[in-house]
């Protein structure tokens, strides 16, 4: 992959489960360096779309990251092209320290011999990731003892050390305190300085503060797209969210 920032280009993406179109002809562009929020009611197809981009489900259409077509490639190849994701539940190694988690992630593309060699000091990429995710002071703690928010940041750190260029985050602030949300929002801004970020999120307050652009999905399709203000003002979006008091996308910011 070149040093230039790459964007995501999706065309006519379809994922069908037993005849049911979970993603039904989605086309969208996320420009390089964007922080795109993907929202929509439950079952809209958001997670399935991310699953398709990362190779976890079979899909038709086209998904290009930079110049590379991702569809049809196995999961590990897509990861090697610089595409990484988090899941709704953080998947860190709880019995290992923060540093060990990052070290393993950093070594994911390396041979076993390199990994076995004893390290003197912390690799540069790991030290940088620790700083970015704010866990430098926690590096020797077992990941299982971290606060909920810190585990999520560690998971993001594990993507950073793998040099992921497109981050897809599935509800990163679910279950977080307000302080943790604020810190996560700041982290998104730092991460997106030289990467492209897509965030699935239900938290509308978080979206208003940190989204640069928004795609609204509904029943497997793109319902609306634009800035936060544009999608909030879109009557189609208001209609879909009407009666969804827990997801007040149409209220004033
Ligand atoms: N493996 C699967 N097999 C069958 N149907 C599935 C599968 N995964 C998802 N679906 C269905 O596809 C549709 C889209 O689900 P998806 O999880 O992508 O929605 P979502 O927008 O991420 O929802 P949520 O906000 O609840 O996470 C839903 O109707 C869901 O039941």
Automatic annotation (TrEMBL):
<protein>
    <submittedName>
        <fullName>Urea ABC transporter ATP-binding protein UrtD</fullName>
    </submittedName>
</protein>
<dbReference type="InterPro" id="IPR051120">
    <property type="entry name" value="ABC_AA/LPS_Transport"/>
</dbReference>
<dbReference type="InterPro" id="IPR017781">
    <property type="entry name" value="ABC_transptr_urea_ATP-bd_UrtD"/>
</dbReference>
<keyword id="KW-0067">ATP-binding</keyword>
<dbReference type="Pfam" id="PF12399">
    <property type="entry name" value="BCA_ABC_TP_C"/>
</dbReference>
<dbReference type="InterPro" id="IPR003439">
    <property type="entry name" value="ABC_transporter-like_ATP-bd"/>
</dbReference>
<dbReference type="InterPro" id="IPR032823">
    <property type="entry name" value="BCA_ABC_TP_C"/>
</dbReference>
<keyword id="KW-0813">Transport</keyword>
<dbReference type="Pfam" id="PF00005">
    <property type="entry name" value="ABC_tran"/>
</dbReference>
<dbReference type="InterPro" id="IPR003593">
    <property type="entry name" value="AAA+_ATPase"/>
</dbReference>
<dbReference type="GO" id="GO:0005524">
    <property type="term" value="F:ATP binding"/>
</dbReference>
<feature type="domain" description="ABC transporter">
    <location>
        <begin position="8"/>
        <end position="244"/>
    </location>
</feature>
<keyword id="KW-0547">Nucleotide-binding</keyword>
<dbReference type="InterPro" id="IPR027417">
    <property type="entry name" value="P-loop_NTPase"/>
</dbReference>
